[in-house]
Amino acid sequence: MRPNNSPWLHQLKRQRPVAPVIGDVSADVVIVGGGIAGLTTAYFTLKHTKHSVALIEGGMVAHGATGHNAGQMTSYFEKQIVNIAKDFGLDMVREAQAHIDSAWDLLEEICKDARLSTPYYRFTGYAGLCSKEEILLHLENNYILKDHPTLLEPLMIAPEAGFEVAELQKYVGLYDIVPHDDILETLETKNRTYIAALSAKKGVMNSALFTEELAGFLLSQYVDRFVLHEESFVEEVILEKDHAMLKVNHHDVKAGRVVLCTNGFEKFSIINHEGMDIDKRFHHSISGTIGYMAGYLDADGKPPVAISYIPNAGTGASGSYDSDPYFYMTRRPFETDLEVAHNLISVGGPDLPIEDTSVYSKDAHEYSEEAFADIDGFLHSTYKNAPKGEIPYAFHWHGLMGYTPNGVRLVGEEPLNRVLLYNLGCNGVGILPSIYGGSRIAHILNGEIVPPSIFDPRSAQ
Ligand SMILES: Cc1cc2nc3c(=O)[nH]c(=O)nc-3n(C[C@H](O)[C@H](O)[C@H](O)COP(=O)(O)OP(=O)(O)OC[C@H]3O[C@@H](n4cnc5c(N)ncnc54)[C@H](O)[C@@H]3O)c2cc1C
Fold first, then answer.
1. Residue-wise pLDDT tens digits, 170-183
2. Who lines ligand 1 at CB under 6 A?
């Protein structure tokens, strides 16, 4: 059996002792979940309000999806923009895209304020496309965003894609025709089925290291207003008219407001004494998948990159919603004790739905050999810089992703009882959306009126 050894947890340099809940606790705002969503929500709440904040984590900070992802920073939705627009309208979807994009600046703000040393790398990343249908879908996405040049994802199309002039007429200015070999070079692939490449602002970061470092900063900066309890699993949340009571380690935690940053898998009941039952609807609305990743070290001296490969069906890549299945590869400097500088090349894509997320254990769950074979097959067939022969994998890991029914993150107040708020539902891409969500929650907790958005919990019901 392959152990779940994530490169992100491997890099944690944590020395902080664990402080579980061992008595009754009370705070203006209680945040449940110590991943990147929970810690950035705590950061913005402490910065923009005068509230006291208690963060309660069932395990250890950053050991959930935050410590088991691909570490790629990207602002696209896994659900196609065209289809989100059908549900919410064009203006709302454009605004939502701009909001997620604003997380780049928010990330920079956090890193500067907290003087974090976690490195992150920003660059232009790419996505390779194989079919005319896929190209047309992305052209249509760009068409919707055409009056907002900063949100556009430039598209290069090879003549080999075989478009008639008339087919592309509507999209003039939204693509370039580029020699096929240049597209393959951009995508670092020898697989000639890729006939187009999208480019977008992307980055890579160890989100676990970032989250753990941010926890340390908040504990030292807000000694009087912030507490962090780990190994403190929330078993029940009881919502009253103006506060909530949480059951944790057989103790009571009283919260003026409670924010769930749990990725989606609470495994606890929510009892609403002030209106309709929230519990059943909420718990049945988030579905889960287990995403598999593998990575190897290479002294290739190449710059950081993030490239997604959207292949034709039948390659083992998986995907969600209406986006086609795809693999994603990142390359970044990886500090090790080796003498020569090494990159970590990591690949994900295969994922498996899980019916009952409460049975998933990051330590006990067996790594899917089928997923591994798909990743290995992808590297050999598609990534032209992969080592010849056997690839010396240093890390294999998996993690849980939470998907909301409409493919859009939930950020905001529960309409049935505003004491409860959410910043959850990664829907495949959660690093930048978590950060944006944390900022939006803080503004709500500060009493500001935020304009309606596709992220409002009522939209998902
Ligand atoms: C394989 C994989 C690849 C991914 N790749 C990317 C990527 O490249 N880019 C990207 O943007 N996103 C990616 N994601 C998603 C991204 O990792 C997450 O959306 C992001 O880390 C946000 O995490 P979070 O804080 O919402 O959840 P988590 O990090 O899972 O944190 C939730 C925390 O809540 C705690 N919790 C849950 N229930 C309770 C309870 N009852 N009591 C107390 N604590 C509780 C958990 O212990 C956990 O620590 C990927 C995810 C996976 C699994």
1. 999 999 999 999 99
2. 32-38, 56-59, 63-66, 68-72, 207, 233-234, 261-263, 265-268, 291, 293, 348, 399-401, 424, 426, 429-431, 434
